[in-house]
Design a protein that fits this description.
alpha+beta, 252 residues, OB fold (Dihydrolipoamide Acetyltransferase, E2P), five-stranded mixed β-barrel, 6 helices, 2 domains, four-stranded mixed sheet, 60s Ribosomal Protein L30, Chain: A, 11 strands
């Protein structure tokens, strides 16, 4: 019987083209480089990959033995993630994504993040969670004023000059007022004082502006974590400035 070898050759090629690429089960660690709808561009030790996920893909935040369900908003550039899924070519179809709390906070501190993420980070710093105070200074104000006196300008410049030596640092700025007058007005005044200090530090030339957290208005009658409560109105009219780093950072 004669065979049409040319026809067999075309048939073999057609089978090769039609056959799907076999998926490989993978479990790997990756760093998110960028994010689009339903896809992450990430880098592993082996190279760049695309990670596809959906609204049903389990995303977990891991903090010690605790695991919390999270949504895709927490997947931000700079975050280290652990991915499980099926890999076809350079794409991983994720069946599970995990990340550590400390890695998320570090990613937010390094990258800009969203307003919501910065609010969470700022809250953690204000409450003293997972952060170490490296340097601290207080700026005191005259009644009803937001002007920074020369002696405090010198203190802020000295603090700003030291900040970069602490590696992955952030600058926390908390504004306060005394209890005299209207509480709402005092809160606005405390925010203006904190804003004045923030602007001064940003313009110092020593601190990267992106490392200065948005100033927080603490109003009257409150204290920063670990701070001794003021005993006079003069001590209450202040802005507390702190250089902080994550507890997981090893840099001294």
């Amino acid at each position: 019987m004669a065979f049409n070898t040319r026809g067999l050759s075309f048939f073999a090629v057609a089978i090769t083209i039609a056959a799907p690429v076999l998926a490989e089960e993978v479990k790997t660690e990756a760093v998110i480089v960028s994010k689009a709808d339903g896809h992450l561009t990430a880098r592993t030790r082996e190279g760049s990959v695309t990670i596809a996920y959906s609204s049903t893909t389990p995303i977990k935040e891991v903090d010690g033995l605790k695991r919390k369900d999270r949504d895709a908003k927490t997947l931000i550039p700079g975050l280290i993630i652990q991915v499980e899924g099926d890999k076809q070519g350079e794409t991983i179809n994720a069946t599970k994504i995990n990340f550590k709390t400390r890695d998320w906070r570090s990613a937010v501190a390094t990258k800009a993040g969203t307003t919501e993420e910065f609010a969470t980070l700022r809250k953690a710093i204000i409450e003293g969670h997972e952060y170490v105070i490296r340097e601290e200074t207080a700026v005191y104000f005259a009644t009803g004023k937001t002007t920074i006196a020369p002696q405090y300008q010198a203190n802020l410049k000295a603090l700003a000059a030291k900040a970069p030596t602490y590696g992955n640092y952030r600058v926390s700025i908390l504004g306060f007022a005394d209890k005299r007058g209207d509480a709402a007005a005092n809160e606005r005044l405390s925010l203006k004082r904190a804003g004045a200090v923030s602007n001064f530090l940003r313009q110092s030339g020593s601190i990267e502006p992106g490392r200065v957290l948005s100033p927080s208005a603490m109003g009257e009658g409150t204290v920063a974590p670990g701070e001794t409560a003021p005993t006079t109105d003069a001590e209450a009219r202040r802005v507390v400035v702190r250089i902080v780093t994550p507890k997981t950072q090893l840099t001294n």
